[in-house]
Amino acid sequence: MAAVVVGAGVLVPFPFYYALWNYPHKWVALCGKGVDPSHRMAQISHALKALQILSLLSLARISAPPPAYSVLLFLLGQYLNFKVYQLLGEAGTYYGVRFGKNIPWVSEFPFGYIKDPQYVGSILSLLALLCWVPFWCVFLWILGYLFMMWVESDEDPATRAKPLS
C-alpha cells in the first residue's frame, strides 16, 4: 500500500501539467482577470514538487555520504535548471507562451545545445538520488518527465490561450 501512495505522490504533478499544456485557455479562464496564470501554475507546481519530494523521502535510506558521481550529477542537473529559470523567468518556465504571453526565443546555453534542458537537468538530479532512493521511484518520476517531453514536443500555436484583457 505504501508503494501505491508513494507512486501516486511521484506522479501527481503530471496530469496537472498535461491539462495545462493541452487546455491553456481553460486555465487562463479559471485563473481569471488579474491573476497571472504562469504565477498560479508555479505556486501549484511548487506544492506538487514538495509532495513528490516527501514521497521520495518516505522511502529514502540515507546512510552514507553520496558517491562523487551522484554529487556531480545533482550539481549539473541543478545548474541546468537554474540556467533555464534564469533565462526564461517564471513565465517562460511555467507555460507562459501557452497562456498567451510573448516569451522571447532564447538560444543561449543550455538552449541550442541541449534539447529540453530543464527536463534533462531534472532527470540528472533524480539519477543522482539512486544511491538513496529505490530505482522504481526514480524510474517512475523520469517516465513522467519523458511523457511531458513528448507532450510538449508538438505544440500547436492555434491552441494557445488568448490573453485576458
TrEMBL record:
Q: Which residues cross the membrane?
A: 123-147
Q: What is its main location?
A: endoplasmic reticulum
Q: Which Gene3D superfamilies match?
A: 1.20.120.1630
Keyword list (alphabetical) reads: Endoplasmic reticulum, Lipid biosynthesis, Lipid metabolism, Membrane, Methyltransferase, Phospholipid biosynthesis, Phospholipid metabolism, S-adenosyl-L-methionine, Transferase, Transmembrane, Transmembrane helix
Q: Which GO terms describe its molecular function?
A: phosphatidyl-N-methylethanolamine N-methyltransferase activity
Record GO cellular component, one term: endoplasmic reticulum membrane
Whether Ribosomal protein counts among this entry's keywords is no
The answer to whether keyword Transmembrane helix applies is yes
* Enzyme class of the recorded protein, top EC level: transferase
Q: What metabolic or biological pathway is this protein involved in? A: Lipid metabolism; Phospholipid metabolism; phosphatidylcholine biosynthesis
Localized where? Endoplasmic reticulum membrane
Q: Which domain of life is it from?
A: Eukaryota
Q: What is its EC number?
A: 2.1.1.71
Q: Which PROSITE patterns match?
A: S5A_REDUCTASE
Q: What is the name of this protein?
A: phosphatidyl-N-methylethanolamine N-methyltransferase
Its lineage reads: Eukaryota, Viridiplantae, Streptophyta, Embryophyta, Tracheophyta
